[in-house]
Amino acid sequence: MDIGQAVRLRLLELCEEKKLTVNQLALRSGVTQSTLNNIVSGRNRSTTVSTLKKLCDGLEITMVDFFRSPLFSQLEQELR
């Protein structure tokens, strides 16, 4: 799994946990609906740190909490 897939899955997991739709998260975080839809659909695979921080604020969690998931423990190395 790569980082883009892990971020996408973690966002969907947290939305489900907090009983939020993706659109509700967009409103709460100040991230545009189209940007968030691109992230969760996999079209955007390189989310910026500032966007991720806004999403964490909307979810009312820290970035440490966001990355505290088994999804991030065994990512593939990404060399370009």
Description:
This protein is mainly alpha-helical and 80 residues long. The protein has helices at 3-17, 22-29, 33-41, 49-59, 63-67. Helix 2 (22-29) packs across helix 4. The model has no long low-confidence stretch (mean pLDDT 93).
Round the mean pLDDT to the nearest integer and report it. Answer: 93
The rounded Rg comes to 12 Å
Q: How far from one another are the termini?
A: 16 Å
Number of strands: 0
Uncertain segments: none
Helix content: 55-70%
Query: Can you summarize the main beta sheet?
Result: none
What pattern of helices and strands is seen along the backbone?
A: HHHHH
Shape: globular
Strand content is: under 5%
Q: State the assembly state of the protein chains.
A: single chain
- Helices, by number, come to 5
Which class of secondary structure composition applies to the elements? mainly alpha
Keywords summarizing the entry:
single chain; mainly alpha; 80 residues; 60% helix; 5 helices
Could you give a quick summary of the protein structure above?
The chain has 80 residues and is mostly helical. Helices cover 60% and strands 0% of the residues.
